[in-house]
From TrEMBL:
Organism for this UniProt entry: Nitrogeniibacter mangrovi
Keywords from the UniProt entry: Monooxygenase, Oxidoreductase
Cited Pfam families: Phenol_Hydrox, YHS
Record-given protein name: YHS domain-containing protein
UniProt-recorded Gene Ontology molecular function terms: monooxygenase activity
Lineage per the UniProt record: Bacteria, Pseudomonadati, Pseudomonadota, Betaproteobacteria, Rhodocyclales
Domain of life from the UniProt record: Bacteria
Length: 505
């Protein structure tokens, strides 16, 4: 007599193997070296690709199911935000400056990461690595799309959101993250994984997404909170994967250690320089703040980063070369960069402002050893200039760092009264740097970084210092998208519409 026999259900580990490793094959018509030419040229030695372990054991069918559920919830909230005039629920329109920088600088970076993971997924011989990169490539383009969709509602009411793609490619402050991703995407596949999987995901993500999304909630922006929560589960997976990639390389061959350490040194410093924009957003651009940049660094940099490098010490990895200089810069970098953004506000596709007295008191409390001594006097001088009708503007071209592309506005690690400026000669040309960290990167990869495209020298060369022509090229409308927040159209519109929504006028 026939009996019904229940189909054997695969365990999690078996299912993962069936849906990933068993999908691979060894081609007979071409050699491995021909198919994967970039797997060896960086010098990384991999002896067994089957040792690559995805810590989440996620398969494609489960991936699509989870992502689809998140998409349904996300777009339901975005629709509700738009239909209920969510743009009037924010604290005030100064908050939009943080959103504009995010849209111009970070969202295009997500798209660049998508392209990068799609490429390295093709260049790795191992099936486990290919599947992991494929999922992360899809994650990254989804993040770019949801961020653009979440902020598109603000573009209907406020200035500065309309040309974010041009701003990303052509404005001086967005060239900082752009050069970060261009550098990563022109690197080999293993270095790309350190750049994005470790530096961007592990170092940057915690300091960007967690405090910034909390700040969005504090400031009434539920659209941004929603895309942050939607992305956060992916980010946790990306961070874990980035760490596993480092361990995988170190466990495969001891000869990989010096190469990995050098990449960690480089990409920690490159990521830290990108965080300069994040520090200004946290300390100055959120009308209602969750924590200071210093407090966020203490939690996510010192404590989490310290634990990470204690874990990696068993492989011989030490903390990055620029770690001590980074710690010395924490109490200064947001103030120095915001002062720079204010004096060049005619060249930014967002508004800036002199902090009101209450904000300066908050900064004094959060930075008791530095703000009142070094930065409050400068802001008070700028306030006096504005009161006398002569707003301080710097029409000079700032020297840009050849590596990170930030203006040379930071100070020496051990002396906040001295500007940190390094330079060197190469083939008759002088190159400038904002720090020892950036100069060291240039010295190691000179042929790569002498080709860097810097927007301000391009302004001088291609537009003959014609600022209005440059603004037209970057899609910026002078007097609307840039300049001081006080008296701006964003301020006037928000106050008028908020008044209509909350009074009987």
């Amino acid at each position: 007599m026939d009996m019904k026999v229940a189909k054997k259900k695969l365990g999690l580990k078996e299912r993962y193997r069936t849906m990933t490793r068993d999908l691979g094959w060894i081609p007979s018509c071409q050699t491995q070296e021909t198919l994967y030419p970039y797997a060896t040229y960086e010098g990384i030695r991999i002896h067994d690709w089957d040792k690559w372990e995805d810590p989440f054991r996620l398969t494609m069918d489960a991936y699509w199911k989870y992502q689809a559920e998140k998409e349904r919830k996300y777009y339901a909230i975005i629709d509700a935000h738009a239909q209920n005039n969510g743009h009037l629920n924010i604290t005030d329109a100064r908050y939009l400056t943080a959103l504009k920088i995010f849209l111009q600088a970070i969202s295009p970076g997500e798209y660049a990461a998508h392209k990068g993971f799609a490429r390295v997924g093709r260049e790795f011989p191992g099936v486990g690595a290919q599947v992991a990169c494929q999922m992360q490539a899809i994650d990254e383009i989804r993040h770019a799309q949801t961020q653009v969709h979440a902020m598109s509602n603000y573009n209907r009411y406020y200035d500065g959101f309309h040309a974010f793609a041009d701003a990303r490619d052509r404005i001086w402050y967005t060239s900082v993250p752009r050069s970060f991703f261009d550098d990563a995407m022109s690197a080999g596949p293993f270095e790309f994984m350190i750049a994005i999987g470790f530096s961007f995901e592990y170092v940057l993500t915690n300091l960007l997404f967690v405090p910034f999304m909390s700040g969005a909630a504090y400031n009434g922006d539920m659209a941004t909170v929603t895309f942050g929560f939607s992305a956060q589960s992916d980010e946790a997976r990306h961070m874990t994967l980035g760490l596993e990639v480092i361990k995988f390389m170190l466990e495969q061959d001891p000869a990989n250690l010096p190469i990995v350490q050098q990449w960690i040194d480089k990409w920690f410093w490159r990521g830290f320089r990108v965080l300069g924009l994040v520090s200004a957003m946290m300390d100055y651009m959120l009308p209602k703040r969750v924590m200071s940049w210093r407090e966020a660094w203490q939690v996510y940099g010192v404590e989490n980063g310290g634990a990470l490098f204690r874990d990696l010490a068993r492989y011989g990895i030490r903390p990055p070369e620029g770690w001590d200089d980074a710690e010395k810069a924490i109490d200064h970098m947001s103030h120095q960069l915001m002062l720079g953004l204010y004096q060049w506000s005619f060249g930014t596709a967002f508004h800036s402002w002199i902090p009101p007295e209450a904000d300066m008191d908050w900064l004094s409390q959060k930075y008791p050893d530095t703000f009142d001594t070094y930065y409050r006097p400068r802001w008070e001088y700028l306030r006096q200039c504005a009161a006398e009708g002569r707003q301080f503007k710097n029409f000079g071209l700032a020297k840009l760092c050849q590596v990170c592309q930030l203006p040379v506005v930071f100070t020496e690690p051990d002396d906040p009264t001295q500007r940190c400026h390094r330079s060197l000669e190469h083939d008759g040309e002088t190159y400038h740097f904002c720090s020892d960290g950036c100069q060291h990167i240039f010295e190691h990869e000179t042929e790569k970084f002498i080709q860097a495209w810097l927007p301000m020298p391009a302004l001088a060369r291609e537009f003959d210092l014609n600022v209005p022509a440059w603004m037209d090229w970057v899609g910026m409308i002078d007097g609307q998208d840039n300049g001081d927040y006080e008296g701006s159209r964003d301020q006037q519109h928000f106050n008028a519409w908020r008044g209509l929504a909350t009074t009987n006028q």
